Structures are given as structure tokens and as C-alpha cells.
Amino acid sequence: MRASLFITCYNDTLYPETGRAVVRLLERLGVELEFRAGQTCCGQMHANTGFRGEAFSQAKRLVRLYADAEAVVIPSSSCVAMMRDQYPGLFEELGNETLREQFRALVPRVWELSEFLIDNLGVEDVGAYFPHRVTYHASCHGLRALQLGDRPFRLLAKVRGLELAPLANLDRCCGFGGTFSVKNGDVSSAMLTVKLEDVLATGAEFCTALDNSCLMHLGGAMHREYAPMKTIHMAQILASTQEHPAEVMG
Amino acid sequence: MSAADHPVLDPALAPPFPVAALPVLRNVQLRKNVAHAIDVIQAKRARLVAEKRDWQELRSAAAAIKDETLANLGAYLEQFEERCTAAGGHVHWARDAAEARRVILEILREAGADEVIKIKTMTSAEIQLNPFLEAAGVRAYETDLAEIILQLGRGEPSHIVVPALHVNRAQVREIFSRAMGLEGLSDEPKALTAAARNYLRQKFLEVPTAISGANFLVAETGGVAIVESEGNGRMCLTLPRTMITLAGIEKVVPRFADLEVMLQLLARSATGERMNPYTSLWTGVTKGDGPQNFHVVLLDNGRSSILGRKTERQTLRCIRCAACMNTCPVYRQTGGHAYGSVYPGPIGAILTPQLEQLRHAQSLPFASSLCGACYEVCPVKINIPEILIDLRARVTDQERHTVGKFFDPMYVGLRVANVIFSRAWLFHFAQWAGRIGARLVTRRDGWIHRLPSVGAKWTQTRDLRGLPKQTFHEWWKDREQGTEGPRDQGNKGAEAR
Fold this sequence. Notes:
The complex is a heterodimer. By secondary structure, chain A is of the alpha/beta class. Chain A has helices at residues 9-14, 16-28, 44-48, 52-65, 77-94, 97-106, 113-120, 140-145, 151-157, 180-183, 185-201, 212-224, 234-239, and strands spanning 2-5, 32-34, 72-74, 110-112, 133-136, 163-164, 206-209, 230-233. Helices cover 51% and strands 11% of the residues of chain A. Chain B is of the alpha/beta class. Chain B folds into three domains: 1-51 and 322-399, no CATH class; 53-61 and 68-143 and 208-305, 3-Layer(aba) Sandwich (Rossmann fold), CATH 3.40.50.10420; 409-495, no CATH class. Chain B contains 24 helices and twelve strands.
């Protein structure tokens, strides 16, 4: 199995440890990974802030870059949701038939990480070891746009040593929402406070998710509040073994 | 709530959402009331939806009925007019709020009315009917319990189904005892409803003219349908001699049988009931029974401008159940007043700016984290996030070349980001430059506690981890070249917090 990693702009810049974990995890499972140096951003930030033309040019760039990839793996549900939900509209309005054709051919080969593991590779037990109490935050895009369902839980259930702490109001947004978090900073903060109460009430050592964007939001508040919990992308938990424990930061 | 905090629900005058949200965010009691009320309704809704095995099919059927209607709206409205007129009703067409108000006042003058009783109608709030009538010398009395609370307490609606959900029992007691002169009134629901009933019975018996909204207009029969919980609507439909129904043009459904689908969805979605307590259906005038003088005012007020857009047209499917606001995490924090319109929540965020044809309420499409909860519960499958994003693009197109926005830090940032993302080498250069710049603001614990400009809105409640020493693509390159070394660990600063 060969696959191309789209790391996403903010993981590349802010959370390289997530990318390193994806590489370790997938190579351990026998996937031949490649990384295309030309990649930048999927265009979600521009699309969701009303910059349609800019979002289109980034979307076009991405589709062309991966046109010949066997599979594209993305450790971020919101970027996958951007491609599946928003690219069709952008290409319909601003693109030409060649681009639309290229996109239609590419989109079935685009996978969010947990989809790739379960639906493509057919593994639930990835041989991970992570002896900690962990709670799982379902990002809105993973939950509603990608309909990930119980996939994340099936993967976590097979991690040795991991104790899952269930999170109340699992389907409630953390209030990040990209530029919403600054455009409507006060409302976003109020939403975050409510979410953080539920997250901290789990008494877990770690809060994990399939999106570093939510984790940046939750983790930022945890650090500000001196909360006894850290955030960690699920790729890092799944990559973690007894010999190579997860790189835990922040 | 102080006078300075009195909410403004006129989109032309209301402050932008982030500003209008501030007084509410400071009002702990109000936020508690809102969160409690919608959590209760949502839980009831979820239980009743779960027992309905054909829920998804019902949603699809309702969306299809509405889409068919909207595709032939003119024809169905004309059919409604024809059938309603044949049944003894009078149909009026109003292009905008001003025309609707004028038409209603003319009918009232003709009937010689200086008082009118009202069934709960958000459409009348949309056209700001009550203050207009008041100024013209006609006193309007609300008969819906929540509307009475607001009218007597001089409050503003914060929800379309439960307009006074931000007011709690103790506050209702205060309002009633002051306005009705009832000292020693208890805050037991029984006592409060009894007080309202005493107040209302007199109005029902004395006032011979009524105004209603409509939940549905049936083209096939020319009939009108109203659903309600308290029975006050039924009273208004029985005793008065003159009845005026104000309805948005999107309220029409083609066939009587369509109500079978709509009513199942509406009650469950709106109040978490299998069926609403009172469903009233009437067609024109029935000799010797109910109002003998019946008028329908069909209101456009910006609706037809939405019809021409494929994505946005879905907005007009709305049956005003409020499930979207009951599930919305933004609304849960802000309540309805922050939306500066009588239509709050996710549906308000898409409907209000469109009714205003984007001349006002431009901040509303941005008042969402795009979490998608509204779309999930919408009984007529309005893809609200998709419409929000479309409207954001239209607002941005409108604003981006204005002087104020051209130099707005966020707009500048997004333009620069677009250039950066267009070439990988530029992106990599920007990452390098960002890493240098971040050193200025990164504390010794490896975290950023305070950012300038737009970033300050982030750091007012959140820290941001400092930039790692090595990006992922740099690590990958080192690894390919076999020079993967100590830098692999990277980010030492951030590790030691």
C-alpha cells in the first residue's frame, strides 16, 4: 500500500510531532509513505472567512498536486471535510470541466486518518501502547461532516494500557471555528469555558482528538488555567509503543 | 437588565453580533435561563425523534415538498388566493413591511377597531407591527403567554417558539404582579398561568378583532393552519368578528395532505411533543361560525430575492420550529438578543441578512463556528452551514474593497496568507520568518501568552504553544537525506513547561 501524506498547513507549522507520529504509525503498518514538498493549505480558512477566490486557487493547487496519488492521508478531519463538502461548490462555480474531472477522480482516494486505518487498511489494533487515562473529543467536522461514528473509539479501545474516560456532551462544539475564534472571540471563549468544564470533569490525563485545531483551542485554555491535563493528537497515541513512547509536548 | 442593555431587534439599527453579544455574555442569569430552557427542549426532542423510525424519510419528504413549492411559488400562491377568495376570504399582497402594515391598518380602520388581540406571530414582529399600530391609535394585546410576559415587561423576544425563554419564573412573577397589580402573587406556574388567564379572558370577550400569523397556507383548499400549545389561538379564532392573517409567502404548501408530513416534523422539532396541543385549520368564512370578515396578507419583504439563488433558496423551506437554535452552541451562550433581529439563532443568521438583502446584519453569517449541529436537526434539511459560508463570501465581496476593511488586519492577513499558500517556498519562508518573530512573544515556558492585533482576541482567554524549532517538512527532508538527528526531538522549549 502506497499513500501520500497531506500534513496540512498548521500541523506542518505548529504540530510537527503529529506528522512524525503519522509517519511512524503508518510505516509500522507497512504503508509506503511519500510526502510531496509542494503542499501548503487546503483553503479552508479562506473559504470559511468568505475569501472564495483565494480558497479556490488553493483548492485547485491541492487537487493538481495529488492528481496521481494512490491515496492521500490527512490527519485532520476539518481539512478532509473542506475537500469533500466545499470543493465541489468551488469547482462548480469557478473551475473548468478538467478540474472537476480531476477532483471527482481524486476525492474517493482522500482519507482522514481513522478512516484510512479502519476502512482502507482494515486494522483496529495498531499495536499501540499508551498507559494513560484519556478522553476523546469528537471534533464537529469528524462527527458530522465525515460521520466518523465509532471509528475513533474502536481504535482507542485496542490501545494497550489506555483507559478511556467518557466525555459528557460529546457532540457539543468547543467554540474554535477557525477565524470565528477571533472574529467572535468573546462568544468563542464562552463556548470554550463550557466545553472545558466537561473535558476537565473526566479527570483524564490527556484529551485527544483527530483535529489539532480543536486541541489547540482546548490546550490553549488548559495551559492558561493551569489545568492538570494535556492535549495530544490521536495519531501520537496510536504511534506510541513501549519502545517509542509518544512525544508529549505542551 | 439596564436601559443601556436593552436589546435592539431592528437589523438596521442593531450593533454587530460580537458587540451585541457582550451585554448578554455578562448577564449570568440570562445565560443560565437560556441554557436550561433549550437543554430541556432539546432532550425532549431527541427522545421523540429517536422513537420515529422514518425520521430521515420524513425530513427528505418535507424538503421535497418545500422545494416543489418554491420552484412554483407564484402558481401556488395564486391558487391559494383563488381558493381562499372563493371561500369568502380576502387576499392582499404586500411587497414589504411598510405595505403590510398599511394594509393591516386599513382593514382595522374599516372594521372600526381601536383594539386588537393577537395570536403569536413572528412575522408581525418582523414588520414591527405593534409599535406601528400603537402610533396609529390601535392597541394590540398579545395573547400568547410568553408574548404577554414580554409585552407587559417591555422585553424583546429571544426565541421564535418560546420568545420569553430568557425570563425565569421569579421574573415573570415580578412582571405580572406589577402590571396586573397583584400583590402577593406566587411564582408557582399554576398561579402565574391563572393570572394570565384572568387577564386574557376579558380581552377575548371584549375585543372583536384579531391578528394571527400562519404556520401553513394550503394552496389546494385556500385554508390556513395554526399550531399552538395554549389554546389562546383557538379563542382568537372563535370569538372575534374580524380576523387578519399575516403570512410570509413561503408558508404555502401545495396540498392538504402535505400537512401530514409537516405537522409530524414540526411538533417534535419545536417543542418535543408528538403532537402540539392545538391545531387550528380554517378556510375562508363559515356562516354563523367564527370570524365573518377574514383577510390574509401575503408578505414578501425580501423573500422573493432569495428565490433566485440555488443554495440560499433552501432558507425558505424553514417551518420556524427553532430546533436549530435549541441545539446551537453559539445561541446557547448568547440567547436571541445578540442577533439584532426577531429571528435569532442559526436560521436567523441566514434569514435576517437575506431579508435585508445584505444591506444590514452582515455580521450574522460569521456568528457561527460552523459546527453543523443545526443542519443535523433541521426537519426540512436546510444546509445552514453551507448557506452561512455562501453569505460570508457575499459579505466579504461587498466589504473587501472598502477602505475600512482593506486595511483591517484580518483582511490584510488573509490576503498575505493567500500569497504565501500559493508557493511552497514562500510558505516555508513565512514559517521561518514566523519562527523568528514568535521568539519576541514566546515566554520562557515555551508558550505565547499575549499576541498583538487580531491575535489578542485569541490570547484574551487562551495561550498558544510556541512555534517548534523544526517544521514537519524540514524533519521529513532531513530524514530523506539521512541526517535525521537530534533535531528530530525539536521543540525542547515547549516540552519544558
